[in-house]
Write a structure and sequence with these properties.
Elements (H helix, E strand, L loop, with lengths): L2 E6 L5 E6 H12 L8 H16 L5 E3 L5 E3 L8 E6 L3 E7 L4 E7 L3 H9 L2 H7 L3 H18 L6 H4 E4 L9 E10 L2 E12 L2 E7 L4
Antiparallel strand pairs: 1-2, 2-6, 3-4, 5-6, 7-11, 8-9, 9-10, 10-11
Helix pairs in contact: 1-2, 3-5
Amino acid sequence: MIIEETWTGKSGETLHLWNGHALMQKYANSLDSSAEELRGRELERRMIESACEWLHPGEILVKDDFGKPYWKNREIAMPHMNYSHTKDLLFWGEHNSQRIGVDVEHEREQLLRIKHKFCTAEELQFCQDNIQQILLVWSAKEAMYKAYGQKEIDFREQMNVWDFEHLQGEQTGQFKGQLLVDRTSFEFEIEFRRKSPYLLTWTLLNHP
């Protein structure tokens, strides 16, 4: 099964969760090579090409100067999209009228060592060394950054999230985020799902 799950977010966004191994195997079969040979950017490229062909046959994705993907064909109406991947999963989101950011993460101790680089003082005070909460903050800010997608952002100084204190242990939920850029404030409604051992997070860019 290539697509593991498809669902709709609260703001009308469409989310797809793909089986990364199935995508890799599809390309391995077509190229007479083993899936294990695919690495790094080449693996990412082929996974994305396979997903595009599945959802929008004939369309091609390219990246802008900030690394944000967009459709190469500008002459037809296409949904805003974004993706995130691991070697096991490809998480893909689309929305017809708003920019979307998505992120898939898994728990890793490294986040505890660098939490001071992306968490505000208030976020650190609440999260302490709770890896699930730290991961939620990190993933939310990744999704916000990808939805904005225009310039480098300081995750600690320009971003904050809140209203997630009651979500500890929850498998799904939503909370709020904010991004400050040149005295302009962008507000976000962030959604998440836990799919052990992964965390899926997504949000839309709401203009102030």
